[in-house]
Amino acid sequence: MTDQLFTAYFQHALHHVQIYPLEHGTYFGYIPRLPGLFAEGQNAATVRHLLQNQLSVWLASMLYLGLPIPSLDGIDLSLEQLGVGVTDDS
To answer: Which residues have a Cβ under 8 Å from the Cβ of 4 and sit 6 or more positions away?
Structure first.
């Protein structure tokens, strides 16, 4: 179930990618509602590839650090939804 949630979230996030040409000939892209996910590249395909890589790292980092992940298109990757408990060993 968890793998399906990650896959669905990843795919939905990529559907939200916005890519725009810049005046100097490169492209800029970002994923709205997912803070910090933006990239610039020589063409739209490069920007999309960079955003895919960033999204993977961003998701893993947010989960590892226990930070909230915004729900996207009704998909919730909260620690509670994933059944992950944060324990305090102190």
So the answer is: none
Domains and CATH numbers, the chain: 2-82 (3.30.160.250)
First to last CA, the chain: 31
Residue 81 token pair: 């939804």
Tokens encoding 7: 């896959």
Please state the φ and ψ torsions of residue 79, each to the nearest 5 degrees: -60, -35
Radius of gyration of the CA atoms of the chain, in A: 15
pLDDT digits (tens, 9 = 90+) for 39-89: 999 999 999 999 999 999 999 899 888 888 999 999 988 756 555 555 555
- How far from 22 is each of 29, 41, 48, 53, CA to CA, in Å? 10, 10, 15, 22
Cβ atoms within 10 Å, residue 39: 20
